[in-house]
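Record type: monomer structure entry
Structure origin: computed from sequence
Chain ID: A
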Amino acid sequence: MRRANAIISALIIVCFIIHMIWGGFILLGILSGGSPVLSCVTIAMEILLLIHIIIGIKLTADSVRASRRAGVFYLKENRLFLIRRISGFALLVFVMIHIIIFEGSDTAGGYRLNVFGVPQLISQILMVLSLIVHLVANITPLRIGLGIKDGKNLRTDIMLALTALLFLAGIAFVIYFIRWQVV
């Protein structure tokens, strides 16, 4: 099940990168929104996220059950376990907020987004930060689950690339916020 979860996680990352780059160009005003291709990528990512969440809940329940049987949880030693679960839950909340913010509506013959003010900007910056924490905490299990034996350099390269992309996503959110304030 961990291998399946690793493959699903890799597919989520691919969909996420496409969604993030395409969505960033939309936020910057370079591309127009409402693309059917972006919608398909987003729906695929949402389905994969749902499967990832279900597998994550099952693996978490198995781990908690095993620690109960042993009678000890080793809170200090399982700090990374807790960081993974807490960042995943935070990410789930912020992704739901992201969906609500960018859902928009088809009214008056055109696609209209919801207002993007300070609370929305803060929620999206927190989503980016939660994603960074979740990726950093889970990159090693992902590498192991995918069967990549010695990947310290690969892990560093992946984290550098994803962090740079997430930094750019944060900038796109800020520019989008500024555009909302000016218009």
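Annotation 1: The beta strands are 105-107, 110-112.
Annotation 2: The longest strand covers residues 105-107.
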